[in-house]
Amino acid sequence: MDNLQLLTYIVVGATFALYIGIAIWARAGTTGEFYVAGKGVHPVANGMATAADWMSAASFISMAGLIAFFGYGGAVFLMGWTGGYVLLAMLLAPYLRKFGKFTVPEFIGERYYGNSARIVAVLCLIIASITYVIGQMKGIGVAFSRFLETSYEVGLYAGMGIVFIYAVLGGMKGITYTQIAQYVVLIFAYTIPAIFISLNLTGQAFPQIGLGSAMADGSGQMMLDKLDQVVTDLGFHEYTTQARLSGLNMFVYTMSLMIGTAGLPHVIIRFFTVPRVRDARTSAGWALVFIALLYTTAPAVGAMARLNLMNTIQTGEVGAAEGNLVYAERPQWFKNWETTGLLKFEDKNGDGRIQYYNDKNPEFAAKAEAWGWQGNEMVKVDRDIMVLANPEIANLPNWVIAIVVAGGLAAALSTAAGLLLAIASSISHDLLKGIFMPNISERSELMASRIAMAGAIFVAGYLGLNPPGFAAGTVALAFGLAASSIFPALMMGIFNKRMNKAGAIAGMLAGIGVTLFYVFQHKGIFFIKDWTYLESWGQNWFLGIEPNAFGAIGAVVNFVVAYLVSKITAPPPEHIQHLVEHVRVPRGAGTATGH
């Protein structure tokens, strides 16, 4: 066992011991503690836990990789995933907290006065959450398999075991305090390597400043100008102007991610855990602060990782044989990632050197052929490796690499736990207690909750081992499903007294139905293994909108169908209309009632 692997085992093992210790200390003794941590979490602590709940493997591992390869086009994820929190803070969190229930389906069931609406909400919640949790389980397996040198399956089983212990034992109370620890781990893991790399490249300690600073090599060239030069020399589009999406696609994609964020049940449920209405909005504000620490660092991490990768492989003048890295002399990090299958080289011209360029650019490909190149020889550079490989590429100390592994696992585990709790509570509280066994004792309900949580973990693990094709494209699909189903029902439930049960049910079914139909209709555009698009992408798309962005269109369908159906059916009962007015009244902010 080498020093890096030993250090990684120690760091990861220590963080896991911390999570389990917190779960034992914060064990839930009542259903209130299991579902909403007894509604006693301080807003700052809740903001930190919410940030960890939110910053999944997609944020920690994938987002900087997306920015690294999409450049400017990757901004859609930054805008969408953070903008959703503004919607949450202003339009949903305080009103849902004032309503005072445990879960999103419970709110929908009460607001739309019937179990039918509650059942539809549970169905939508489970579809969106299961889609999202697959990515977390995959992230756990990938991180384990690379750095702990185990198989993907063993890594996934280990992650399932850790989640099982602290989620089933502690419920929301245990998850909340565990997520606070996980936030500290993941934010250190993300920012420390970024600071090291920014200092190396630009001499600036803050990556956010380094991104717009001059190179530290004395050339006076700005870092982004250097990156533009490197990638265009290799036939790629300029990093700072590259737009992967059309204007309409980018707008719709951003909207889908924003309203999907505001509709994701595992995020919304966090605002039921604070003591008062005012605290719900405060904790949303703190969550934005804690999220911003990572999200403002991500563009620098993506840009610097891309520059380091290109400089490592392409070490001299483009087109000159001496300018390309000799494959037999490739660095150790390259060999490590080759073993995972996420980095692949093919010597197409038999010269033993690595030629990495964009052979899909016809103009550049013609030049390359004149130099004796016969196609891009880096046949696979998976964008999801960029954050995890970045410290190795930059030759940072082993302890930094070990912390990055722990951070990636913390990000995946924290979100997986929140999603699994949302799924389990919808089954035990909304279906069992709310509909099928209303007289069940609190002790029996708590046991049912833990059994449902265990079942959800095993289902998530199975799907992580055998991911269905529709979920392999991107985590953004889960946001689209939440955007098209849950968000409109919540918004209309709070701000439209006339919205009735028939309208809400019809809207949710229409929204999620049209989104799922569109996704499945175009599911052939995804490669299941590497998440890249086929050559024929965009053919037969509605207004050119790609499936992962279609949630915003599904939300529009939801709103329109719900409005029309509510107009031709009976209005809600008078007491429901009074309830809506009560929820919207800001006066007192719950200080008198504690709600």
Could you tell me the radius of gyration in angstroms? 25 Å
Strand arrangement across the biggest beta sheet: 1-2
In N-to-C order, the SSE pattern is HHHHHHHHHHHHHHHEHEHHHHHHH
Question: Which percent range fits the helix content?
Answer: 55-70%
Overall structural class, as computed from helix and strand content, comes to mainly alpha
Approximate strand percentage: under 5%
How does the overall form come out from the CA principal axes? Answer: globular
Q: Enter the CATH topology name of the largest domain.
A: Hydantoin permease
Number of domains: 2
Largest sheet: 2 strands, antiparallel
Number of helices: 23
End-to-end Cα distance: 55 Å
Average pLDDT, all residues: 80
Low-pLDDT regions: 316-321, 469-474, 524-538, 587-595
- Name the CATH architecture of the largest domain: Orthogonal Bundle
DSSP strand count? 2
Q: Indicate the CATH class of the largest domain.
A: Mainly Alpha
Protein architecture, described:
By secondary structure, this protein is mainly alpha-helical. It folds into two domains: 365 residues, Orthogonal Bundle (Hydantoin permease), CATH 1.10.4160; 86 residues, no CATH class. The protein contains 23 helices and two strands. Helix 5 packs parallel to helix 11. The N and C termini lie far apart (55 Å). The relative contact order is 0.17. The C terminus is likely disordered.
Offer a quick outline of the entry.
With 595 residues, the protein is mainly alpha-helical. It has helices spanning 3-25, 31-36, 43-54, 57-70, 75-99, 104-111, 115-147, 152-202, 207-210, 223-233, 247-263, 265-268, 277-295, 298-313, 332-338, 362-370, 386-393, 398-436, 442-465, 476-495, 501-521, 551-568, 574-584, and strands spanning 343-344, 380-381.
